[in-house]
Specification:
This protein has 107 residues and is mainly beta. It has 1 helix and 5 strands. It has a domain at 20-91: Ubiquitin-like (UB roll). The protein has one helix at residues 43-52, and strands at 20-27, 30-37, 61-65, 68-69, 86-91. Strands 2-1-5-3-4 form a 5-stranded mixed beta sheet, with helices on one face. Mean pLDDT is 81; it is low at 102-107.
Length: 107
């Protein structure tokens, strides 16, 4: 009998990534650790951040993962996130003031 390839069997734990990942959201000294399923929509994480950080108005910032803006309809699996990965949160600044999400300056 030929042996089945290592990835086909259900018992092959090595080939399967852990179902849960803990993702960190960081912003100016604030840190949120959120454990979620790899197949859950990231909106859950974004909502959790706004819930835990009351001084940030819902929907007023951007979440970046490896420099790319996150969308709530994606999952950690879509983005190949690993346990312990970090997401940066940048709050939109109103009016003048500094622009934190890059090196662009106001005219």
């Amino acid at each position: 009998q030929a042996m089945s390839p290592p990835y086909s069997g259900r018992d092959s734990k090595a080939a399967v990534k852990p179902l849960l990942v803990t993702i960190k959201v960081v912003s100016q000294g604030k840190v949120l650790r959120h454990t979620m399923s790899r197949t859950d929509k990231l909106q859950v994480l974004l909502d959790a951040w706004y819930h835990k950080v009351p001084d940030v108005t819902y929907g007023t910032g951007v979440f970046l993962f490896k420099g790319v803006r996150l969308r709530g309809d994606k999952t950690p699996a879509d983005l190949e996130m690993e346990d312990g990965d970090m997401i940066d949160f940048f709050e939109h600044m109103n009016g003048g003031g500094r622009f934190v999400a890059g090196s662009m300056s106001a005219h």
